[in-house]
User: Which sequence fits this backbone?
């Protein structure tokens, strides 16, 4: 049984309260997984900085990575959360399911980035077959590849924290 205790929003440091306000602006609330990060005085800030860092990927591309990797890692929290986010940025329910299944037919570039992220999550690194060639042929470069690796690491961190803490899912739950 997991007895991970969620922090109370009012009991965190001023630094974490400021980040909570930014999260509320982004998501309308402080998602429970971020309350778990706030259990560490520096954990929330470190993860938030990682989450919001500049990179070459579009918001849609990052959400594709988030959904694909969370599906590989079977994370119900992250699949629920990122399905909501993906819907908010214009993906249809059918497209979200296609992304999660790594079966994107509606966009060549997103298909290529999903394949790379899926492969990295499955193999823990080595990219097999023509996946990398397809990625480059879709218009991506080595800088994008590095940013995909960072994005895979980012969402994997979230997947792991959920697996360890089992915080309540505070989004409409989707089937894994």
Assistant:
């Amino acid at each position: 049984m997991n007895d991970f205790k969620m922090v109370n929003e009012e009991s965190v440091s001023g630094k974490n309260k400021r980040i909570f306000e930014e999260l509320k602006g982004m998501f309308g609330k402080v998602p429970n997984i971020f309350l778990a990060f706030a259990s560490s005085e520096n954990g929330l800030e470190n993860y938030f900085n990682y989450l919001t860092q500049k990179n070459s990927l579009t918001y849609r591309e990052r959400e594709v990575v988030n959904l694909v990797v969370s599906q590989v890692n079977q994370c119900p929290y992250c699949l629920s959360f990122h399905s909501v986010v993906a819907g908010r940025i214009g993906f249809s329910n059918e497209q979200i399911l296609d992304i999660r299944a790594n079966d994107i037919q509606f966009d060549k570039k997103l298909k290529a980035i999903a394949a790379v992220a899926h492969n990295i999550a499955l193999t823990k690194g080595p990219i097999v077959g023509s996946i990398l060639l397809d990625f480059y042929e879709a218009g991506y470069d080595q800088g994008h590849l590095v940013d995909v690796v960072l994005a895979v690491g980012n969402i994997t961190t979230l997947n792991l924290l959920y697996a360890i803490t089992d915080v309540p899912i505070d989004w409409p739950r989707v089937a894994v």
About this structure: The chain has two domains: 9-52, 59-165.
